[in-house]
Amino acid sequence: MKFEIINMYPRPFKKLIDHFASLPSVGPKMAERLVIYLFKQNPEKLKDFAKTLDELKTNLKYCTQCFNISENELCSICADSSRNQKMICVVEEPLDIFAIEKTKKFNGLYHVLGGVLEPVTNNNKLKIGELENRVKESNITEIILAMNPTTEGDATAMYVARAFKDHETQVTRLARGLSTGGDIEYADELTLGSAILNRK
Ligand SMILES: [Zn+2]
């Protein structure tokens, strides 16, 4: 007789399994294992886990300057005066910033576009106008385009580069070497680090 094994679980268990199973890369089996693991933890740890989860959306916002995820108006990178204020590395998503920061090969500022160009939808949601304003207002000497090496990433990089073709600001792009179709987010630190150093 065939039946869904998941139905054997009490309701809160099942609900939590569904939540975990809806996360990227977590299948139903893994979700079950995670929930059982959590069930075995002490209540304090679980309360802290739940509280942290709750705070994820209530205490975090987007940096008003670069659109990185931040606890304050300005993110820790924008607020750090020891960083090179004349360079902006343009990325698709906040996670790309974490990946580039891990390489320790870039000491400038960032700008999160919030995605890539999509031919069908309108592209107004991308923070390109905000980038132009930043470049106009501060003396930016170099814009580094760090889009993912995908068709959409390439198209977006070309589009952004065009927006600055009449500016004096130098526009560079990460060197090839990142595997095509791969994400910056998943690139190893060494490869990504040398792509930054060898940008052109
Ligand atoms: Zn910022």
Description:
This protein has 200 residues and is an alpha/beta fold. The chain is built from seven helices and six strands; from the N terminus they run H-H-H-E-E-E-H-E-H-E-H-E-H. It has helices at residues 11-21, 28-39, 43-58, 94-103, 128-137, 151-163, 189-197; strands at 61-62, 69-70, 87-91, 109-112, 142-145, 170-173. The model has no long low-confidence stretch (mean pLDDT 89). Bound molecules: zinc ion. Residues 63, 65-66, 68, 74-75, 77-78 line the site of zinc ion.
What number is the mean pLDDT? 89
Biggest sheet: strands side by side, in what order? 4-3-5-6
Give the fraction of residues assigned to helices. 40-55%
Radius of gyration: 21 Å
Low-confidence stretches: none
Hetero ligands: zinc ion
Q: Biggest sheet, open or closed, and with what strands and sense? A: 4 strands, parallel
Q: Which overall shape is indicated by the principal axes computed on the Cα atoms?
A: elongated
Count the DSSP helices: 7
Q: List how many beta strands DSSP finds.
A: 6
Note the run of SSEs as H and E: HHHEEEHEHEHEH
Content-based structural category: alpha/beta
SS strand fraction? 5-15%
Distance between the termini: 63 Å
